[in-house]
Amino acid sequence: MAxxxxxxxGGGLAGLSAAMKLAELGIDxxxxxxxPVKRSHSVCAQGGINSCSDQTRQAGDSEWKHFDDTVYGGDxxxxxxxxxxxxxxxxxxxxxMDRLGVTFNRxxxxxxxxxxxxxxxxKRTAFAGATTGQQLLYALDEQVRRWEVAGKVRKYEHWDFxxxxxxxxxxxxxxxxxxxxxxxxxxFPADAVLIASGGCGLLYGRSTNSVMCTGSAxxxxxxxxxxxxxxxxxxxxxTAVPGADKLRLMSESARGEGGxxxxxxxxxxxxxPRDIPESERYYFLEERYPQYGNLxxxxxxxxxxxxxxxxxxxxxxxxxxxxxxDLTHIPRQELDxxxxxxxxxxxxxxxxxxxxxxxxxxxxxxxxxxxxxxDYDRTADGGLRSASPTNMVxxxxxxxxxxxxxxxxxxxxxxxxxxLLSCIFDGLFAAPGLEVWxxxxxxxxxxxxxxxxxxxxxxxxACQQELIRRPAGGENPYLLHxxxxxxxxxxxxxxxxxPQLRDxxxxxxxxxxxxxxxxxxxxxxxxxxxxxxxxxxLDMFPLAQTILRGxxxxxxxxxxxxxPEFAMPHLTGETTAQRRAEADAWCTRFDENNRRWxxxxxxxxxxxxxxxxxxxxxxxxxxxxxxxxxYGLVGAALIEEVWNQRVTAxxxxxx
Amino acid sequence: MAENHREGEAAKTFDxxxxxxxxxxxxxxxxxxxxxxxxxxNVISVLQKIAAHPRTADGxxxxxxxxxxxxxxxxxxxxxxxxxxxxxxxxxxxxxxLLEQHPDEIELRPxxxxxxxxxxxxxxxxxxxxxxxxxAWVAVDGYYxxxxxxxxxxEEQEQLYPLSHCMSCGCCLEAxxxxxRVELTRGVDESPEEFVQRQAETYDRLFLGPHAISxxxxxxxxxxxxxxxSLRLDALIAEGGIQLCGNAQNCVAxxxxxxxxxxxxxxxxxxxxxxxxxxxxxx
Lengths: 655, 283
Prior knowledge:
The complex is a heterodimer of chains A (655) and B (283).
Chain A: E1 5-9, H1 13-24, E2 28-33, E3 49-50, H2 54-58, H3 63-73, H4 80-99, E4 114-115, E5 125-126, H5 132-149, E6 153-157, E7 159-166, E8 172-179, E9 185-189, E10 192-195, H6 216-223, E11 228-229, E12 234-241, E13 248-249, H7 253-256, E14 260-264, E15 281-282, H8 284-288, H9 298-311, E16 323-326, H10 332-350, E17 359-368, E18 371-372, E19 399-401, H11 419-440, H12 450-468, H13 477-491, H14 498-515, H15 529-553, H16 576-597, E20 599-606, E21 611-618, H17 637-653
Parallel strand pairs in A: 1-2, 1-10, 2-6, 10-19
Antiparallel strand pairs in A: 3-5, 4-5, 7-8, 8-9, 11-18, 11-20, 12-13, 12-17, 14-15, 14-16, 16-17, 20-21
Chain B: H1 2-10, E1 13-21, E2 28-36, H2 43-52, E3 80-83, E4 86-89, H3 95-101, E5 105-109, E6 116-118, E7 121-122, H4 125-133, H5 154-163, H6 171-175, H7 192-205, H8 210-221, H9 229-237, H10 250-254, H11 261-282
Parallel strand pairs in B: 1-5
Antiparallel strand pairs in B: 1-2, 3-4, 3-5, 6-7
């Protein structure tokens, strides 16, 4: 058999960890990336990476608790075995990254320092200042460069993935890519293709994502028949700084290190924030969630900030929605040591020193919990079978999805500092399974009939020619993108309402039709960014439709998906007995809702109709039974009590 | 009234002069664009506006200007260009500040030390080649679980962390008088692989640059990385090595991440001298 190769699409944490592990296993790897891999969006991750540690263990933490926090934070929407496996791998992953030279912050004695992050009560998060993603990515970039020198890895940087090549059994045998400099289109036979292309924040116009996070690689797989799951679950990060070109993230670690979110009790108090006395400040997260305070999960913090600004009219500024994120009580030296990276960003882009003046922040689209549907191989004890080619494979054999672009770990809401973990875990864990997949193949992709690849290349060349030959004066792709972003941001972010979602779907379909009449301002064959952007825009519509259809269909509140119409009621009864009856009804409704909606949304693209078909899949919750997600909300103790009584009674009935 | 006010503001414009080039080997030319002013713009949002409406100040339709960018928060190193005569990241170049320095006009040029691919896009492959030359990685045994990494003091971490911030943007190389531009073209009978090989060999003979010297200090200071110190010092004393540094100290002045490049160069210079002497006595 000819030598087999694996193609990795995307050079962020997931792609590079897969590439280096595959190379270590002796497998030849190609890495295709829009940008030199060192510039991938993983560099934007700031706060840290989670695992339980020797120290948290002594405070009662364990891998199981990390697993539990992750599924509880995700509102139980994720299959539990992959999450469990990831949590148990987490300490080993941090050790590995430490060995690779990541400059994690240290304690006085020289151990890796940890801080607290959202959705947990333990200090689990290892960090390298406030540039943890950058530092982790650089360590992997260095290892992959080492394998490049050794001849095991070839990089195709400044290449765009145009789509998978499937044989007539539907097996992925490689892909087609385009050189973004020479505009050459060519096929890459590959015995497995790993999509590790990250998120799709550009669907929302401006977000915390980098400009290359268009979701195009994923959309091209989706349009080729790969399933997409839980698309409607989009994380809106509570703390970002609005800008004309981008919404710049201010890491959750700011709150992990003691940062406090507040607004003046007097609407639009004109005083300098430092002159507003404590008694006239409303620390609304701390008051509403005494147990978790500023470190409630992101979906909750985001909704509360929205509520404060929009419903309560307490925004700090009059014409613009924002709240204070205050670090000014923390010593300057500590801030520089632990949060330097984000403070510099704020200072550079806002011209204000956040060590002295509270930052003004507002939520922004940040992360896609949903993504390509992938399978897993469950062991009897509820973990993942190692070296199984079933792990992380899409419904198209030979096509895998790793990192943010799959749907596997974060359910309805991702906890901070779990994404870096899930990306690296995916790459390391998938590689041995791929080795088994390769050895099971009878022929190498390089030996597949040339016509298979040639026809796909010709199809892509024809698509490109069609775009280039369009008459001038058509629709402007950049303006259509801006409109798409506005439609998506209005309908499918923090608060979702069915009439708005219906309108948005209609508007997106209209935009998709108009996008077919886009004319290029550049029809050349050299570094044509206009062509590449327009093609990415066309591929945004199938994913936008998937998000909107999923959101419209899901009539409930779960994690980041919040429809006020279906929100669970507060307990309002005056007497304890009344409230107990309400809590009982609450629990019954919670149970019924789970029976109906504790399911993954699975979308399939219908190429002929150019629309999305949804179905639902049961979630494996066999390890940790779903329970109400309350986070010590004021007044929720009673619901918890009633729920626990029910569970105990249920267990007693089991013979 | 409010509407009128807004219209009045929208009428405020400024000019952007861009040094354009259609491709390698082609002549460059200046092109002037007029952009409507908005608050909080940076050079990226200016280029985005030009891409959406590619028309010069005198009303001529042109192809959109090509440029590199990704993160827009100065951590990825993509958007290096020369803005009002200074090499920097376009994302953190705020229009209000630029107009304070030069009212009514902003000038954009590609970095001159790298071959132009198109307009503001340059080929920075050479700077990554230097990272290969100096073995810029920790040569761990493998990626299986081997327990914790070597312990490190806070002081050590605080020394290494700034060095590991280098985002390979190339600003230091644009500013360095010793880092001369080299532009190779693929020969007619040369395969792409052969061309890449020839490029690497050529780059390896030329000055490796302050960014790579600083990476030597980073990895030679790491408890495991230092096992390969002498290999990296060999690269520093080889052709294209640290001896070519003319101590102009421009690199440290333009580094957007404030990396102490000249401190690294001084340390590397001393280490390289000791290493060279040792090698003589070994012989």
